[in-house]
Amino acid sequence: MKIAVCIKRVPDSETRVKIASDGKSLDEAGVKFILNPYDEFAVEEALRRKETAGSGEVVVIALGPAAAQETIRTALAMGADRGILLQSDGIPTDGLEVANALAAELKGAGFDLILFGKMAIDDYNHQVGPMVAELLELPCVTTVAHLEIDGAKGVAEREIEGGVEVVEFPLPAVLTTDKGLNEPRYPALKGIMAAKKKPLDVKPATLRPGALEIVALTPPPERKQGKIVGEGGAAVPELVRLLREEAKVL
Amino acid sequence: MVEGAGSGEPFVPARYQPPLPVDRLILKDGAEGAGDRMELDVLIVGAGPAGLACAIELARLAQHDGRDLNIGVLEKAEALGEHCLSGAVVNPRAFRELFPDLKDADFPLRGPVTKERVAFLTSRRAFTLPTPPTMHNAGNYVASLCEIVRWLGERAVALGVNLFTGFPAASLLVNERRVVGVRTAATGLDREGRPLSNYMAPNDLTAKVTALAEGTRGTLSQGWLEWQAVTSENPQIFALGVKEIWETKRPLHTIVHTLGWPVPPDAFGGSFMYPLEPNLVALGIVVGLDYRDAGLDVHELLQRMKLHPLFRQYVEGGELVEWGAKTIPEGGYYSVPARRSGDGVVILGDSAGLVDVPSLKGIHYAMQSGMLAARAIHAGLGAGDTSAARLAEYDRSVDASFIMKDLYRTRNMRLAFKDGFYAGGFQAALMTLTGGRVPGGKIAMEADADVPRQLTPGSRPGSVPTPDGKLTLSKVDGVFKSGNATRDTIPVHLVVGKDVPAAVAEFYARMCPAGVYEVAQGALRVNAPNCVDCKATDVLGPRWTPREGGSGPKYKRM
Amino acid sequence: MSHVLAVLEPRDGALRKVSHEVVTGARRLADALGGSVEALILAAGAVQGADQVGRFGADKVITLTNAAFGRYAPEGYARAIAERVKRGAYGAVVFAASATGKDLAPRVAARLGRPLAQDVTDFSVDGGAVTVIRPVYAGKALLKLKITGAPAVISLRPSVFTPVERPKGGAQETAAVAGSAGRVVVKQIKAAEAGTLDVAEAPIIVSGGRGLKEPANFKVLEELAAAFAGRAAVGASRAVVDAGWRPHADQVGQTGKTVSPTLYVAVGISGAIQHLAGMRTSKVIVAINKDKDAPIFKVADYGIVGDLFEVVPKLTEAIKKLHG
């Protein structure tokens, strides 16, 4: 089974967000970068599918700066076979441009499955996977939390409000993965050693700037000063009134 | 069961401490239980300054020979630097020696020390003291050990060193008397020790030489020393440091050290405050673990300390960025083990006690010991001989180097303080004046755990009442700020002694800066996931053992 | 004149409530752009609630029918919407950032060759260009983006654009649309497991800490949660999870979950940073604690100082009455 997994190098979610002096980006001092956690489910799924099929190849592709090679090596250490870095110091804010660059790389390569994490934990854009699918004219299911594949057909389950959608689709297809799909493996020592020798192709990314421009990155508004409504059980009616009429949550 | 230590009776911590589990730490090579097995030429345990300097020097020597050495460095933290913590003001000489082609400006150091101040504090005032000769820091640099380690790591990897982060070494593998490698800790066990779905078995790594660079109170180092019955003239003693990094509104341009308040007169310690940047300040307090008052709480002392005008002016209006804690080996010259090498093994840096307390320096000694070990290992590999006799060359070179010269000069300085600040201060002054000659002979020290403790009447109860969350914070909040996100279902890695009475449990609760220990309904509660691997517990209380890789803090610029 | 297409969300023959939010948002955007709001429904037949949409500002409500559109058909919907947009002069296309919306919007945007701003919490129009604000870095920062060109394709974060009645004509139109559902077929919707509402998904969370004193006392919180008629889950602070009183799956904060419910009620929780980090992006926070100095009160929008064993049962009663 030939599977591509598109991954992203992102700041650790524990990162304390400090805004850079340009007012538009993250101050990267002391920031730790990791493989996007949702992409880990995608890499793991690809490895399992290849292992079940008994043969095939798992290729990881990333769009990012030179340091993203380290992120690709993490996926290689998990067991992926080779990596491709589309190198660019800046990642366009416009997800469609990211999708264009990835689609150009994936086109015609004959992958049975192209996997993405459902979203990146930095931009929360939740879009590149399905956009790539549209550009490649492939079927796509997003936020897959359960997956079964039988030959050229697949059945995926995805969570929606109050339920689970059961979706059928043909292969080849693009899927984006959600938590719960699998438990990603830790890279084994041997995997880490082997990763150093696996092929990692670095090529410059051709990117258009896109139609989304960052105006500003700002901290969230300070929560307004809260109020102590009262003491003891006597305060309950007033609390309920406030929750209904002022906060409008009841 | 309350016994002997109820309301104010003295107790000796050692009585409640389980022994070092040597039978778990020393395993015969070939013992069952490992998954993968990997062979290396040299294995280094610990990616701190000592381990990485050793790796870099070795890789360079091998490159020079045109040889291909398979060097592996095991690091228990998930990423480089995450378990490293120091003040720090660094002497750049080890950097210069390891990287002769680079200039000071190229090193991962922050600003050079331009101004320095030593002050004696009372609860409200600060009296500037003349800077003791041992503390002159001209020519040194303020630095973040995390940044140093990440930088060294990059250079090591560029030289082909294999860096395995998230892999704690849990046991030494031995063949008769020779150390042949280590076994790593297992991953993915539940609280009862049963494998979860992402369970990974321990790995065995074998090598011709294993360099133990585990930092303070290294577990395998302790195990090897005990197993090989290697002693030192004095037992090793430790201090606990609790540190915070603050973004400040008011800039700081001076490095500051203080003595006196809030460290009680019957304890040894002081504080530091260094500018990583004018508005990014590292501050902390360090207290010897031989303190007498069972109610002493180093984290709490730090919280009080920040309210002192000297510190308050910086933290007020600022933001706490990180919190952390770590012990420091303080025994100096007389606590360094008689030998730090054996068949197939060497011990580097803090694990060998190579720290000079009066000048508060350890990083450049760690790096230097790493380089010296690398040279000895390289020579041994070249001669096909990594026996104790051959590796003793490492010991000889350390003894002949500035490392031991420096430690010898200040050999009694810390020890003089065992009887309290004023007696110690007087003796320390004498030592400084006479270059260590007076008082001359070794001052004997007992191990910290052997020092009796007692709850002093009027002893402050536990943490600062209601940490305000702005200037002062609770231990639990500190743990959060250390980046610790250890999974709560992890097996308990701390080995508690039997029948710990409530008063000793209370002592543990104050001792541990991370709130691992609590007294609940008169019994000891262990919140193991809180642990930030400072090792104070290993010194005074329940034994620390290696746990799943990636657990513990995630320091960024400590 | 720039029209705004509001893509509504039917399920099982009726419009989901979030559709009102979409129309409300579209109305606001249309007013700023100087255009009208066209609400769009894709379904197999007439959809309940379509005639109510005018109340929230839709000038027209268009139902496009196709036998294959009974359930969400990703490719069929995307094609139909893109075709409609291409034929008109739309300044914006608005979706809900619901599970379906977040799936559908990227497909439509890609077909149109347009960027997509997902999960928007605010927007404005400056000089004809739509500027949006969306949370990033797990809500730790807000990103302001300017969209150049038209249409602006955006999805609105649920529960932010509270429906506002701004009645417009709401003229109903129905048309059949050709085409298949596409290659990706929704076969069925399985109901979520009854009873256990996941803490991470619940719109209301009632969380307990050590103030509860014993595990059995969590019953008091379970009763409060039940009073919200299936919309609330019971969460727990790390302290009580560590003590074994509650399962790890219920933990909020630190290595438990980060939650962002509409309403978070913290009972007997002091407010350690780790817990706060887990729930600070909740829309409304209520704290009940007997210690008036507890740090949680600094973060809470509303607080009651008192004995939780007295306050919570009274609150349970009051909520029960509200839900009839």
| Major sheet size, sense and barrel closure of chain C | 7 strands, parallel
Q: Give the helix proportion of chain C (percent range).
A: 25-40%
Order of strands, main sheet of chain B, comes to 7-6-17-18-19-16-20
**Biggest interface:** A-C, 79 and 81 residues
Strand content of chain B: 15-25%
Using DSSP, what is the number of strands of chain C? 18
Structure summary, number of beta strands of chain B? 26
From the structure provided, what is the oligomeric state, counting identical versus distinct chains? heterotrimer
Protein described:
The complex is a heterotrimer of chains A (250), B (558) and C (324). By secondary structure, chain A is an alpha/beta fold. Chain A is 27% helix and 32% strand. In chain A, strands 9-8-7-10-6-1-4-5-11 form a nine-stranded mixed sheet, sandwiched between helices. In chain A, strands 2-3 form a two-stranded antiparallel sheet. The longest helix of chain A is centred in the N-terminal third of the chain and has 17 residues, at 37-53. The mean pLDDT of chain A is 94. Chain B is 25% helix and 23% strand. Chain B has 14 helices and 26 strands. In chain B, the strands form seven sheets. Chain B has a seven-stranded mixed sheet. Chain B has a six-stranded mixed sheet with strand order 9-4-3-15-22-21. In chain B, α2 (49-65) runs parallel beside α8 (363-382). Residues 1-6 of chain B have low confidence and may be disordered. In chain C, 26% of the residues lie in helices and 30% in strands. The longest helix of chain C is centred in the first third of the chain and has 16 residues, at 18-33. In chain C, the strands form four sheets. Chain C has a seven-stranded parallel sheet, sandwiched between helices. By secondary structure, chain C is α/β, with parallel strands linked by helices. The model of chain C has no long low-confidence stretch (mean pLDDT 91). In chain C, α2 (74-87) packs across α3 (99-112) and α4 packs parallel to α8. The chains are: A alpha/beta (250), B alpha/beta (558), C alpha/beta (324). At the A-C interface, α3, α4, β7, β8 and β9 of A face α2, α3, β7, β9 and β10 of C. β12 of chain A pairs antiparallel with β10 of chain C.
